[in-house]
Design goal:
- The complex is a heterodimer of chains A (about 180) and B (about 300).
- Chain A is an all-alpha fold.
- Helix content of chain A is about 75%, strand content about 0%.
- In chain A, helix 1 crosses helix 2 and helix 2 crosses helix 4.
- The longest helix of chain A has 22 residues.
- Chain A is globular and about 50 Å long.
- Chain B is an alpha/beta fold and about 300 residues long.
- Chain B has 5 helices and 12 strands.
- In chain B, the strands form 3 sheets. Chain B has a 5-stranded mixed beta sheet, with no helix packed on it.
- Classes of the chains: A mainly alpha (about 180), B alpha/beta (about 300).
- At the A-B interface, helix 4, helix 5, helix 6 and helix 7 of A face helix 1 and helix 2 of B.
């Protein structure tokens, strides 16, 4: 079923929208949640949270890209669950490794920023991603958005793990220069 | 901002990038295809280059200019069908001289009319023997090898006498012995003009020097142990070859055969050993040649081992 049909089911308050969404994007959403939380149970709960959030938001929300919308809900849910569970202790989840890598280029200046700064940062990240070749962009997003580990990335992109790590390292340095140039770091 | 917050902010990146990364379409590199393409390219290059390499003839170094001390050329004007023969004399050191000596020599060759056609069939059998070194003309050494050479002049050809003033051998009917001639490299140039009205041939007679070995390129040629006369032939023909010749203590006469048409230049080198007592100078040398049109006749006349009949 196409995204518009699923959205139409949400708007009609038809519960089949949930099952259709799960059938269409359930595996991908579980994968994202599992990579972030590091747990299948947490991933399942994240998916349920995301479905409930979509049920509550649509309508009035009418997402242009239902797949991205649903993945974003799952990621938010997984990230909240990860932060709640691992505030005090280190995690072995993939997201922990990707955050550590980002910490190499993002100096710790607190976790509170203004809404304006948040929008500017997101716009800068989008501009940075727009300037990348598609393969490098997909690699970057897969690592830092989907929290996929390097072994999975190597298999997915037909590269060696060392090549993946080298490419990601160069991308991080480019992102750091880009954010510095934008005055965000 | 810190890394955790930045990671959260990543959540809000464009939908396009999220969906694109969800289904990456990265194709593996087909290494076997690259290898196959490279092999095809190599084969194509080899197929294009190899025939050209096979057709290339090795370059032959000209004799050093320093060995040439004098050169005189005489030529008579002739009709459009005339044949010109150049004789060039170059003096070199001999066994009786300690230093090289310049000899000015004028050797003139006349021109004969090519229209004079001699229709004759001659057949001659000669017993060719190769003497052991050192060669003693007074007492013929026992022959090492024996061969029979049959030379047939075709009636269809017009023999051109390049040296009408050639010396006459007043000798017994059978030569005392024969000398094997050492054949040097064969070189062909395509730069010759096709406008030559008639055959054009040029001879250089040179007393041997150790420097000659560079272009003789023959292990049998050893100027340190024997006296030689080195002959360089430059003929504007498709091909040319030395058929044989005669030698007396006072002179040397060579006979060449040339193959028409005169569309290229052939350069030949020969080293003719001089027996003891034969003080032949370059000006004592003469040459005549026959021009043929048929390559089969040319092949019949030429020989891999030309011999010089030596008369006492």
């Amino acid at each position: 079923m196409v995204d518009q049909a699923i959205i139409a089911l949400f708007e009609e308050r038809d519960e089949q929208a949930i099952s259709e969404s799960e059938m269409q994007y359930g595996a991908l959403c579980r994968s994202v949640a599992r990579d972030i939380t590091g747990s299948d149970e947490d991933a399942e709960e994240c998916l349920n949270d995301a479905m409930l959030a979509a049920w509550n938001a649509i309508p009035p929300a009418k997402p242009q890209n239902f797949c991205a919308y649903l993945l974003r809900l799952v990621r938010n849910a997984a990230y909240n669950r990860y932060n709640a569970a691992h505030t005090e202790k280190r995690s072995t989840a993939n997201i922990a490794g990707s955050v550590d890598e980002l910490a190499e280029i993002i100096p710790d200046r607190g976790d509170v920023i203004s809404e304006v700064e948040r929008r500017e940062t997101v716009a800068a990240i989008n501009a940075f991603l727009k300037g990348l070749p598609q393969k490098q962009r997909d690699l970057f997003v897969r690592r830092y958005w989907y929290a996929a580990d390097t072994a999975a990335l190597a298999k997915m992109f037909h590269m060696t793990e060392s090549h993946v790590r080298m490419t990601l390292s160069r991308l991080r340095k480019r992102l750091q220069k880009h954010l510095q140039k934008e005055g965000l770091l | 901002m810190n890394a955790n917050l930045f990671s959260e902010l990543l959540t809000d990146i464009s939908d396009e990038y999220i969906v694109s990364a969800a289904n990456p379409h990265s194709k593996p590199i087909r290494w076997y295809r690259i290898s196959a393409a490279a092999a095809c390219i190599v084969l194509l290059i080899a197929a294009a280059v190899y025939p050209k390499l096979r057709m290339q003839t090795p370059e032959i170094t000209e004799p050093p200019a320093a060995t040439v001390t004098a050169e005189t050329t005489a030529q008579t004007a002739a009709e459009t069908t005339a044949v010109t023969v150049y004789t060039t004399a170059v003096s070199m050191k001999t066994t009786h001289r300690t230093t090289a000596e310049t000899v000015s020599q004028t050797a003139a060759e006349t021109v004969t009319d090519a229209e004079t056609v001699t229709d004759a069939v001659t057949e001659q059998e000669q017993v060719l023997t190769v003497p052991e070194a050192p060669i003693q003309p007074e007492t013929a050494p026992p022959p090492v090898t024996t061969a029979i050479l049959t030379v047939t002049a075709e009636t269809t050809e017009a023999p051109i006498q390049g040296a009408p003033e050639s010396f006459h051998v007043d000798a017994p009917e059978e030569p005392t012995f024969t000398l094997p001639v050492i054949t040097g490299p064969w070189q062909k140039e395509n730069s010759a003009s096709s406008d030559w009205p008639e055959p054009y041939i040029q001879f250089y007679f040179v007393r041997s020097t150790p420097d000659d070995h560079g272009y003789m390129l023959d292990s049998r040629y050893d100027p340190a142990h024997q006296q030689y006369i080195v002959v360089k032939v430059r003929a504007d023909y498709t091909d040319a070859a030395l058929c044989g010749g005669t030698m007396t203590p006072s002179g040397l006469q060579l006979h060449f055969v040339c193959l028409r048409p005169p569309d290229s230049t052939v350069i030949l080198y020969y080293a003719i050993p001089l027996p003891d007592g034969y003080e032949i100078q370059p000006e004592d040398c003469r040459a005549e040649y026959t021009v043929v049109n048929d390559s089969d006749i040319f092949q019949e006349k030429q020989t891999d081992q030309p011999m010089i009949d030596v008369y006492a």
